[in-house]
Amino acid sequence: MALPNVFTKEVSADIIERIGHLKADSQPKWGTMSVAQMMAHCSVTYEMVYDDIHPKPNFLMKFILKTFVKKVVTNEVPYKHNSSTAPQFIIKETKDFEVEKKRLTDFIIKTQQLGEKHFDGRESHSFGVLNKTEWNNMLYKHLNHHLTQFGV
Asked: Average pLDDT of 123-152?
């Protein structure tokens, strides 16, 4: 079954509405991140698309990521609870809830406005060129996983 399309206004609005139900003191059903750390964590994916602040993997690491991780990240199978994550996605410092909420929401809106044509055939930071379905699955699945983690 296809995942909801983050490039549509309806799905983006639904995700943003779910984010709107979060509160600064929302507690996770699993894991140890605070809600603000979770939103900062989710924003890392978008930082890798829009901001040049994360180092790109070297040739060997990119080969490993494309060969062994890409399918898990871009398929339609939900992530397992407490799955391991890449080091740049680990958020240890305290984050401001409202700042992270706005930042994540702005990334979602920007992505929807650019649309699937912008992403189709675009190279990802870690996995090489992805088609629009792979981009959608990666973005939606990650957001849905963590919003579900916080009960929204």
From this structure: 97
Q: Show the domain range for 56.
A: 9-149
Q: What is the pTM of this model?
A: 0.95
Is 52 in a helix, a strand, or coil? coil
Report pLDDT digits (tens) over 71-94: 999 999 999 998 888 889 999 999
Q: Confirm whether 4 is domain-assigned.
A: no
| Structural domain total, the chain | 1
Q: Count CB atoms within 10 A of the CB of residue 135.
A: 23
Q: Which amino acid is at 37?
A: Q
Residue 3 belongs to some domain of the structure: no
Instruction: Decide if 2 contacts 123 (C-beta within 8 A).
Output: no
Bridge partner list, 124: 128
